[in-house]
Specification:
heterodimer, A: about 90 residues, mainly alpha, 3 helices, 2 strands, B: about 180 residues, mainly beta, Immunoglobulin-like, 2 domains, 4-stranded antiparallel sheet, 1 helix, 8 strands, about 15% helix, about 45% strand
């Protein structure tokens, strides 16, 4: 899997961690923004703080940083299955 | 399943959901706020003319000219769910032709951050004070009142009446020359 030539692979647990982390960051910044905006009575500040949380979450969890690739699945080595594949193709036809 | 783009999409969608929730909380936090404030209105110069309103018909109608003082401190109305106020000054009176006449004489927009402590002296009206007949001369009971619309970030478009009115009377004689 690549995007513009850059590999974007995360392992299975990395995907779950990335999603959880992004939700925590956005929720936290939203809550802090709400409190701060209420204190200084500017809703625009609430929006900017939430936007900062969005940017931070995007930077931390959208690119496939190495910490999301620590638990690679151990796939079995590919077996030579040329004969079986040929048989299947013949059956379909 | 969770590719580069789907992760970005998930974060953006979740951020927008949170934003809509925060906006709703902002609305809830101001839903019970009482935005009425005292206002002090006075009239300075009051004259009435009898001239033709060429925009409507050639018949002569009563046209009032007043100048007014207005003092109101609206600073406290601006909370985090108010973007701007639209003030308007109306004259209300009854005539034999109509039970209730309402004429908007003046208005003003106050954006958040602008000076909302109004101390207006001897202001001219912005709009003509036409009666649709001859009901103004010698009228004893014209009431000036101030209202404002609150334009919020989220929520209702409220119309709030100010506390305090001013009642005045028009003179018994028309004025012919220019005022």
């Amino acid at each position: 899997m690549t995007f513009l030539g850059i590999p974007t692979h995360m392992d299975y647990e990395g995907q779950g961690f990335a999603e959880k982390l992004s939700r925590i960051i956005v929720t936290l910044f939203g809550a802090v923004g709400l409190i701060w905006g209420y204190i200084i009575q500017h809703f625009s500040q609430t929006c900017w703080i939430l936007f900062a949380g969005f940017v931070l979450a995007s930077v931390l969890t959208v690119p496939p940083w190495p910490m999301y690739r620590r638990k690679q699945l151990n796939w079995q080595k590919p077996r030579n299955t040329d004969d079986q594949a040929n048989n299947k193709n013949k059956k379909k036809k | 399943m969770h590719s580069f783009l789907s992760r970005g999409n998930a974060i953006l969608a979740y951020t927008l959901s949170v934003l809509s929730f925060l906006t709703f909380v902002c609305f809830l936090s101001t839903v019970l706020v009482d935005s009425r404030t005292e206002v002090d209105i006075n009239t300075v110069k009051i004259v009435v003319k009898n001239v033709a309103d060429y925009s409507a018909a050639r018949e002569k109608n009563d046209l009032g000219f007043i100048t007014f003082d207005l003092q109101a401190n609206l600073t406290k109305i601006f909370n985090w769910n108010v973007k701007q106020l639209f003030l308007y000054l109306t004259a209300e009176y009854n005539t034999t032709a109509n039970i209730l006449n309402q004429v908007v004489l003046w208005d003003r927009i106050i954006l958040r951050g602008e000076n909302a402590d109004l101390k207006l002296k001897n202001m001219n009206t912005k709009y003509y004070f036409w009666d649709d007949g001859n009901g103004l001369r010698g009228h004893k009971n014209i009431t000036l009142s101030l209202h404002w619309n609150i334009i919020p970030n989220a929520g209702r478009l409220l119309t709030v009446p100010a506390i305090g009115q001013h009642t005045f009377k028009f003179p018994e004689e028309y004025i012919d020359n220019r005022v």
